[in-house]
Design a protein that fits this description.
single chain, alpha/beta, Arginase, Chain A, eight-stranded parallel beta sheet
């Protein structure tokens, strides 16, 4: 077995130096030989309100420089278990959103051909639909854990079928999802009609509004999610605006009353034991994140996704 890539440590190079990759991991051009990879999609041409998510992948990588290789809470040691690298960004067409969707699908076909699990740094939420098209080709329809303030199931936006408010309707239309194994967690805010969150429910999806999450641990919810999903392949899509703007102000469509950062961690850690075949963290907008804290939380959530992948070794239970 080849030596496994390791993040560059803070005692080898100061945290403010070294490569500008996710967790200062080695970079490579393709996913060949990898078990998992970090990949950026620098786009905001699908965003409807504040722009800036095209800068998200770069900022998430920058804030990830503080992270270390072991998960002290869960015991996960992903870099003792998997070959991981940063494979750079998808070369989108920033002037053509439908063309960009096709570029993303083709790019992820190649990643998946190597058998690597893609963990994506976004970028606006439009990107999840073309990723799911490629995922379906390799794994068939998948279960979905969608963490977000918004359902993203609009039929169109300004008459356009492709936008960050439509990806899960498009994914459903393309047969990418297992209807009774779709979870939407954290939905909230105002709507155009009282039925705005019901489209998914009518398809058999489970919708958990933010208000149902207030003042509670989400560990029991994730036990229910794991039981319902079982051994089906599952994709995790985490929009940073699921978190309350007190924790993550750097995003384009903020809504009050959201999840806490620790609830976000509980959701991702609760995916351990599932057949996680991919994940994304989207909608980080650095122009609205002057402290870098939104990108820092995003980087940590992506690391937790890596820690939750099948095959990751764990060094004992928390508190052991």
């Amino acid at each position: 077995m080849p030596d496994l890539n390791q993040p560059l440590g803070g005692n080898e190079m100061p945290r403010f130096g070294g490569p500008a990759t996710m967790m200062r991991l080695p970079a490579q051009a393709t996913a060949e030989g990898l078990d998992a990879c970090f990949i950026g999609i620098p786009m905001d041409i699908g965003a409807s309100n504040r722009a800036g998510t095209r800068l998200g992948p770069r900022q998430i990588r920058d804030e990830s420089r503080m992270m270390r290789p072991y998960n002290m809470a869960t015991g996960a040691a992903p870099f003792e278990s998997l070959q991981v690298a940063d494979i750079g960004d998808v070369p989108i067409n920033t002037f053509n959103l439908p063309a960009t969707a096709d570029i993303i699908t083709e790019h992820y076909r190649e990643v998946l051909r190597h058998g690597a699990v893609p963990l994506t740094l976004g970028g606006d939420h439009t990107l999840t639909w073309p990723i799911l098209r490629a995922i379906k080709e390799r794994h068939g329809p998948v279960a979905l854990i969608h963490v977000d303030a918004h359902a993203d199931t609009s039929p169109d936006m300004f008459g356009e079928a492709v936008a960050h408010g439509t990806p899960f309707r498009r994914a459903w239309e393309d047969g990418c999802l297992i209807n009774d194994k779709v979870w939407q967690i954290g939905l909230r805010g105002t709507g155009y009609t009282p039925e705005d969150h019901d489209w998914g429910r009518e398809k058999g999806w489970t919708v958990v509004p933010a208000e149902a999450c207030w003042y509670r641990s989400l560990a029991p919810l994730m036990e229910e999610v794991r039981e319902k999903i079982g051994d089906a392949p599952v994709y995790l899509s985490f929009d940073i605006d699921a978190l309350d703007p007190a924790f993550a102000p750097g995003t384009g469509t903020v809504e009050s009353g959201g999840l806490s950062s620790w609830q976000g961690l509980e959701i991702v850690r609760g995916c351990m034991g599932l057949d996680l075949v991919g994940g994304d963290l989207v909608e980080v907008s650095p122009p609205y994140d002057p402290s870098g804290n939104t990108a820092l939380i995003a980087a940590n959530l992506l690391f937790e996704m890596l820690c939750a992948l099948p095959g990751v070794k764990r060094r004992g239970a928390p508190g052991a």
